[in-house]
Amino acid sequence: MHSALSWPSPSFRQRRGENRKLETHRSKYCCADLKVEYNTAMNLVELAERIRSLRIDQRLTLEEVASRTGLTRSWLSKVENFRVTPSLPALAEIAKALGVPTSKLVEGLDEKPSLTMVRKNERKVVERDQSDANTSVYESLAHRRKSRSMDPFLITIPPGVAREEALPHLGEEFLLVQTGNVDFEYDGDVFKLQSGDSLYFDASVPHRLVNAYKKTAVVLCIFQSPQA
């Protein structure tokens, strides 16, 4: 158990170096039906929601999409949980499997209005890593802005709830505990957080929030998307 952050271990530095190989870049590929340049730093959450929504509307399982595309089920699941950014060729295969043009998945993601506002009653619930063990609720605070480099969420974590395993994703992340208490697992260490505590960390290291306490916790979480 650790109550304070310590300097990264050599093993951490080595893993971080390996993870950098996965970082996104601006793709110069193009598709005939695209009206925008595909950019792998585009908003992952909106892209993931479009893919998941189309798949569910067509009553397709991840296994069926995997069979049609030649991509693995686990990788497709990471795409739908906005943990990885698909390359344009992979995205084209997904679009083909869903029976839609690639443009339907990406057009509009590069629009950049100067200001967007989301009222409290306009928050959008987004599914992420849902399971019998993880009933946490993610509320998007910026879903109206289609192209964004940050994704802020309010995460409501009931007592005794946690994601099944610690997982990594690209980019950086900021957490602020608003109410309650949570444990934060990071690279094998556990940090006990209470209301008002915050963390900023490299999200390419496996991590997860755990509410091992008797009261519901609410955490502000901000994902910083990797930029080219």
UniProtKB/TrEMBL annotation:
<feature type="region of interest" description="Disordered">
    <location>
        <begin position="1"/>
        <end position="20"/>
    </location>
</feature>
<protein>
    <recommendedName>
        <fullName>HTH cro/C1-type domain-containing protein</fullName>
    </recommendedName>
</protein>
<dbReference type="InterPro" id="IPR050807">
    <property type="entry name" value="TransReg_Diox_bact_type"/>
</dbReference>
<dbReference type="InterPro" id="IPR010982">
    <property type="entry name" value="Lambda_DNA-bd_dom_sf"/>
</dbReference>
<feature type="compositionally biased region" description="Polar residues">
    <location>
        <begin position="1"/>
        <end position="12"/>
    </location>
</feature>
<keyword id="KW-0238">DNA-binding</keyword>
<dbReference type="GO" id="GO:0003700">
    <property type="term" value="F:DNA-binding transcription factor activity"/>
</dbReference>
<feature type="domain" description="HTH cro/C1-type">
    <location>
        <begin position="51"/>
        <end position="105"/>
    </location>
</feature>
<dbReference type="InterPro" id="IPR001387">
    <property type="entry name" value="Cro/C1-type_HTH"/>
</dbReference>
<dbReference type="GO" id="GO:0005829">
    <property type="term" value="C:cytosol"/>
</dbReference>
<dbReference type="Pfam" id="PF13560">
    <property type="entry name" value="HTH_31"/>
</dbReference>
<dbReference type="InterPro" id="IPR013096">
    <property type="entry name" value="Cupin_2"/>
</dbReference>
<dbReference type="InterPro" id="IPR014710">
    <property type="entry name" value="RmlC-like_jellyroll"/>
</dbReference>
<dbReference type="Pfam" id="PF07883">
    <property type="entry name" value="Cupin_2"/>
</dbReference>
<dbReference type="InterPro" id="IPR011051">
    <property type="entry name" value="RmlC_Cupin_sf"/>
</dbReference>
<dbReference type="GO" id="GO:0003677">
    <property type="term" value="F:DNA binding"/>
</dbReference>
